[in-house]
């Protein structure tokens, strides 16, 4: 029986997948030479982000602008479909997909919260039963060409919590599970009743889902 009062929020890269899916997607789409050239063009922003002098989202947008600028939405959506069919399945962690299925079997609402683009995450997530995808979204101009910026802030760190709270609006979950693997998931984990970060212990049992641990 569905229990919509329990929400399970999953990060994607490093949590459901074994690696950074965006890098793999870009390299598959444009090829290694252009991937490397784009990284070199965006290196002032990428280095600045590594030194915490530049916002991560700004650096990511600079890189995607270097490799994708002017590419049409239709082209990118076709590239995303190709990626979903031919490469993404090999990046997924079977044990985490099993965890997604466990939550679904218990009737929990499941949501994907990721800094990677909804361009390929949204159709993939729909195919495995996620109710919603909260992700980084590319911005397109009136001719439907990528303009090298994001439609919303990069979905990382505090932005993940803002997106979650906007998604559930007044329907605050009774229990929130959060799954992540990195600093970008810290705030989401802190917001959750039950949080799991890869490398920090075993997955929590779901039998205690009716017992929130967060202080009220």
TrEMBL record:
Cross-referenced InterPro entries: HAD-like_SerB, HAD-like_sf, HAD_hydro_SerB1, HAD_sf
GO cellular component: a single term: cytoplasm
Alphabetically ordered keywords of this record: Hydrolase
Species lineage: Bacteria, Pseudomonadati, Pseudomonadota, Betaproteobacteria, Burkholderiales
SUPFAM superfamilies named among the record's database cross-references: HAD-like
Protein name: HAD family hydrolase
GO biological-process terms attached to the record: L-serine biosynthetic process
Highest taxon in the source lineage: Bacteria
GO molecular function, one term: magnesium ion binding
NCBIfam families: HAD-SF-IB, HAD-SF-IB-hyp1
Pfam family, one: HAD
């Amino acid at each position: 029986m569905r229990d919509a009062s329990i929400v399970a929020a999953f990060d994607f890269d490093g949590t459901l997948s074994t690696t950074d899916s965006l890098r793999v997607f870009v390299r598959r789409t444009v090829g290694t030479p252009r991937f490397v050239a784009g990284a070199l063009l965006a290196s002032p922003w990428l280095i600045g982000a590594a030194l915490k002098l530049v916002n991560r989202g700004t650096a990511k947008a600079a890189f995607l602008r270097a490799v994708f600028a002017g590419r049409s939405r239709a082209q990118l959506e076709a590239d995303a479909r190709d990626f979903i069919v031919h490469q993404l399945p090999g990046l997924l962690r079977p044990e985490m997909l099993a965890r997604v299925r466990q939550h679904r079997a218990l009737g929990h609402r499941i949501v994907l919260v990721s800094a990677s683009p909804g361009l390929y995450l949204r159709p993939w997530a729909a195919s495995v039963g996620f109710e919603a995808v909260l992700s980084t979204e590319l911005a397109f101009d009136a001719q439907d060409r990528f303009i090298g910026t994001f439609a919303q802030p990069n979905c990382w760190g505090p932005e993940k919590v803002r997106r979650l709270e906007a998604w559930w609006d007044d329907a605050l979950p009774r229990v929130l599970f959060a799954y992540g693997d990195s600093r970008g998931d810290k705030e989401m984990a802190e917001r959750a009743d039950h949080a799991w970060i890869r490398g920090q212990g075993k997955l929590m049992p779901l039998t205690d889902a009716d017992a929130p641990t967060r202080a009220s």
